[in-house]
Amino acid sequence: MIFKYHVTTKEGGDQKGTIEAGTIDSAITSLQKRNFVVLSIVPDEGAKWYEDLFKVFDRVKSRDIVILSRQISTLFEAKVSVLTAFQLLASESESRILKKKLVEITDDIKGGAQISQALAKHPDIFSEFYVSMVRSGEETGRLSEAFTYLAKYMERQHSVESKAKNALVYPAFVIVSFIGVLILMMVMVIPNLASIIEETGQEIPWYTKLILGTSDFMVSYGIFLLIAFAAGGIMFWRYWISPGGKRTLSELKLQIPYLGMLYRKLYLSRISDNLSTMIDSGISMVRALEITADVVDNEVYKNILREAGNKVKAGSPVSQALAEYPEIPGIIIQMMKVGEESGKFGYVLATMAKFYEREVENAVDTLVGLIEPAMIIVLGIGVGILLTAVLMPIYNVAGSL
C-alpha cells in the first residue's frame, strides 16, 4: 500500500514523498527510523494498481546495485571525495533510472546531507539494510569498509538468487512453448482434422470426442477465455501484493514439496548473511534483527525475526528467542549458542551462511537434474495423447479400405 507523507528532517527541512508499507503504522515506523518527524501521512488514493504493475518494468536491477557498491568502495579506497565519487558515478551510469537517482543523491549531498540520509530517500533502490550499513560506516569512520561489505554481501546474494532463477528459465521456456504450440494445434490444425473424422461416419472414441470438443470450444470462445485468464491473472497479482496475499504466498513457498526445502535454505542463508554482515559492522543485535526482518522477503520469517527482536530487547539471548520456532533448524540454534558463548557470533553466522549457500546451490543442481527428464516425460505423454486421440480414427478408416 502506498502512503503520502509530509515530514521534517533532522536538519529542520520539510520533505514530502511516498512510501510503500503494509499498514500506516509500519509506514510511520519506517519514516521514524530514518530520523524523520512525521507531520502527516495518508493513503495515496491516486496510486492505482496499474501504476504498481508498470513499476515492475521501471526498476533498477540488483546487478546494477552490486556494481555500484563495488565502484563506491573502490573510489573511497582511492581517497576520492564523496561528492566527486557520486558525481562521477552519476555521469557514467548506463541505467537511466539509476542515473536519475544518483543525480538526486549528489544534489542532497551538496546540500549537506549525509550519504545514508540521501540514500534513504530512495527506498525502492536502497533497502533499509543498505542504508543502515552505510550509516554504521559513517558513525564508525569505516565508510569504505561498509561499502566493501555491501558489495561482497550483494554479490553473494545475487549469485545465489541468479543461480536459482536461471535454473527455471529453460523449463519455463519449454513449457510456455509447448502450451503455445498446443493452442495453435487446437485452434488451427485439429478443426481441419475434425471435419475429416466426422465425414468417415464411424464411431468416435470418447477421448477423441473430448479433444474435438475442447478444440471447438477454444475456437468459439477462445477470446472470452483469454479475457478471463487475463482478468484472473490481474486479480491474483493484486491479491499477491496485498498483506494477506504475501502471507499466504510465503507460507505456500515453504510447504511445496522439495521447492519448500529450497526456499527455506535460501531464506536461512539470507538471514545468516544479513546478521553476520551487520554485526561485523557494529550494528546492535536488536537493530540487525529488525532490519533483517524487513529484507528477508518472506512474511513467515519476517514475523519470526520481529518477535525474536522483541524478546532480545527484553533480555533473551538470540538463540533462545529463535529456539521455539520450527522454521529455524536446530543446527542454527546450536551454532548461535556456540557463537554467544565464544564471543564469535558474527563468524559463526558467516559460516552458517556459507553452509546454506552451498546447500542452495546443490539443491538447485539436483532440481535441474530432476526437472529435465520429468519435463520430457510429461510433454511426451501430452503429445502422445493428443496425436493418438486425433490420428487413431483416421488410421482405422485407412485400415478398413
The count of β-strands is 3
* Radius of gyration, in angstroms, nearest whole number: 27 Å
Query: How many structurally independent domains?
Result: 3
Termini distance? 69 Å
Helix fraction bin:
over 70%
Q: What's the story with the biggest beta sheet? A: 3 strands, antiparallel
* Beta-strand proportion: 5-15%
Number of DSSP helices? Answer: 16
What name goes with the CATH superfamily of the largest domain? Type II secretion system (T2SS), domain F
Low-confidence stretches: 47-54
What sort of overall outline do the alpha carbons produce when their principal axes are compared? elongated
Instruction: Give the rounded overall mean pLDDT.
Output: 81
Return the string of H and E elements.
Answer: EEHEHHHHHHHHHHHHHHH
Task: Assign the CATH architecture of the largest domain.
Answer: Up-down Bundle
Widest beta sheet: strand line-up: 2-1-3
> Could you say what the CATH topology of the largest domain is called?
Receptor-associated Protein
CATH class of the largest domain: Mainly Alpha
Main structural class: mainly alpha
Q: What does this protein structure show overall?
A:
With 401 residues, this protein is mostly helical. The protein folds into 3 domains: 2-47, Ubiquitin-like (UB roll) (Roll), CATH 3.10.20; 62-126, no CATH class; 143-401, Receptor-associated Protein (Up-down Bundle), CATH 1.20.81.30. It has 16 helices and 3 strands. The protein is elongated and about 85 Å long. Residues 47-54 have low confidence and may be disordered.
